[in-house]
Amino acid sequence: MSKSFKKYFVLTILFIFPIVIYLFFASGKNNFALLPVLTEQIDELKDWNTLSGNPVQLQDRITVIGFWGDDLANKKGDALNLNQKIYKRFYQFNDFQFVMVLREGQQEQVETLKSELKTGVGTDLVKWNFIFGSDDQIDHLYQSLKTPLTLTNNKSLPYVFIIDKERNLRGRDDDEDVGTLYGFNAQSVAEINNKMVDDIKVILAEYRRAWKKYNKD
Question: Does position 135 have pLDDT exceeding 90, yes or no?
Fold first, then answer.
């Protein structure tokens, strides 16, 4: 083996090895970390009106939930962001769903929004759920999340939240920007891409591992 070859071989090892180690531990964190529970036992969705007439539930579902009140005129961008970046990527997973909470009387506007989403990106919206209720119903449901964020007078906000199959709010307790991250700003493509996508991957992987362990046992 020539000295030149040995030199380049050693340099290659010194350069590549730290990168391999970093990727290994980074991958391990993504694959095996759990998304912290921030609030337990979010209220179940009882006595809400739906477009189809069929009940919607949180139990045994992985849910992205948002509160849009009667502010649909300003939510089209949020809907497009979520549909493109989150829903299209994950809706084929079993038990995954979107739930958007609106004031009673917004049914016609929702039908228009759904038509625009279908036309814009051609997505099957079967797991987009819209529920309609009174201000008291909306307030009661939102308060059960126990976040420091506040609904507007329209009973809306730009954030969406991840609820697990046991009706627990999942988020981050060590976020580099805000410390505790309760929800994701649907107006921010960067936040959806850089944080929300990763967190949904983590929770889906958690349930996938649990399912595999159950079948193995």
Answer: yes
